[in-house]
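Hello Y.,

Per our agreement to keep a running log of every chain we model this quarter, I'm adding this entry. I've kept the format consistent with earlier entries: sequence first, then predicted structure.
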Amino acid sequence: MSAAEFGTERAIETGSRLAGAPVRSATPARPGGNNRVFRLDMADGSRRALKYYPAQAIDRRDRLGQEYDALSFLAQHGAALTPRPFANDREENCALYEWFDGEAAVLRPRPDDVDQLADFLLELQKLRDAAGSGGLRPASAGIFSPAEAIAQCDQRLNRLLEQASGSPDLRAFVDRDLAPSAALARRRVEQRYARLGLDPAAELAPAQRALSPSDFGLHNAMRSESGRLRFIDFEYFGWDDPVKLVSDTALHPGSSFPEDSANRLIARLSREFEARDAAFAVRRDVLYPVFGLIWCLIILNDFLPESRSRRVMAGRGGELGAILADQLDKARRLHQAICQRDPDLAPR
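Predicted structure for the entry above:
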């Protein structure tokens, strides 16, 4: 479906067909970077969410399938904090879900938010051996060895470097800060694993993997009137290294947790994973900054032509120069925070 075809009339028609019941109105809501969502007000007074996904010509990942399967699995096992799936349409690349009323949690963060996120992730791990868990896919951009984490960081860095010539400020940041820190992080992984006699390319055993929303934080949480958080957007859900789950949740720029909150989250989740994985602490210590650098590079995705195309598809407005300057500033601040936490990664 093209951008021109997104509209309330089409949403009403499609939503009525998928729900098997009449839709009274459709309202664009929560437009994100990779999809478009309509709130459907049903004739019986209830509400649903109709979510369109990017065309696979733009993004080859099966976002619809990944999310629908994940939410179906969670609903099967009684999850109350994630939306129930009702129906999907592969031809229109859309799906119908339960609608969550409330305020976007990121608008007014609260001190206990980090604990609510940790509680949800810990409950999620109780489903690791539940019926249907073996059929779940790897998380999008999932990592199963330190070597894969390093490779992903290098690939993102190289792709960004191809575009950096057109932006002197970006090139200076990459050359002076990101690239040197990535080299230091890579060297530390190699040295630590060599000292322990471990192979950084060895894949993590399935029993030590975690169920992960992958893209998880306050940016995709809705707060009910009671203050309880409920979670939307599971397009990247699947199996992953628990170190990546912990790191991504603590570092995600969509949450921007204060350092003490991030540390509390890391400590709570680490206790869960250390109990069944003797090498968890080693991987966490050497890979946390690698995942931090990957987040710096993800923030800078808007410098890549394919990401600018998705921005247009998602209806994200703004003057491009200002957007790029803002993203560069965010990446600089995150890199600075990584180096403050781990001074050994500060460029010499």
